[in-house]
Known about the structure:
The termini are far apart. It contains three helices and ten strands. The protein has two domains: 3-30; 41-139, no CATH class. It is α+β, with helices and mostly antiparallel strands. The protein has helices at 3-28, 102-105, 122-127; strands spanning 30-33, 41-48, 55-60, 64-68, 74-79, 87-90, 94-97, 107-112, 115-121, 136-139. The strands form three sheets. A four-stranded antiparallel sheet has the order 4-3-8-9. A three-stranded antiparallel sheet has the order 1-6-7. The radius of gyration is 27 Å and the shape is rod-shaped.
Amino acid sequence: MSRATEATVHWRICAITVSLMGAVLPLASCAYRLPAAAPASQELIHIVANAPEQYAVEVNTGTVREYDVPQDGRIKVGIPSYRPSCGVYLFNAIKVGGYGDPLNGWIVSITFNGKIVHKQSLRVTQKSPTDEAGYHIVRIAQ
């Protein structure tokens, strides 16, 4: 076999191999992972203000629920069940998608006389410091 024929055969084999890899890799390259659903729960919130009973807390999780704040400023708000978004992994190892978090979109609003005086996501509320009883502290500037 001549060198020109050998080179041609070699390039054909390479082209076939690359074509096959190009056809097979996309089929086996991504994996989707669906996390378990988070059950319904309660979030403990402590409103720190001069007169906390004058405030109300609204939690918007797709439906808005309003809670009156008692004199001690401590309330329990209901959090519905939810499922985090599907994770997308390249080669089932490198996360490339599915970073959505419903708790970042769910909003806790503190109102005074019907006007919003403080607003933050439920995730930010969960990350705030807690008091001795485990309530997440939300300070209202006077």
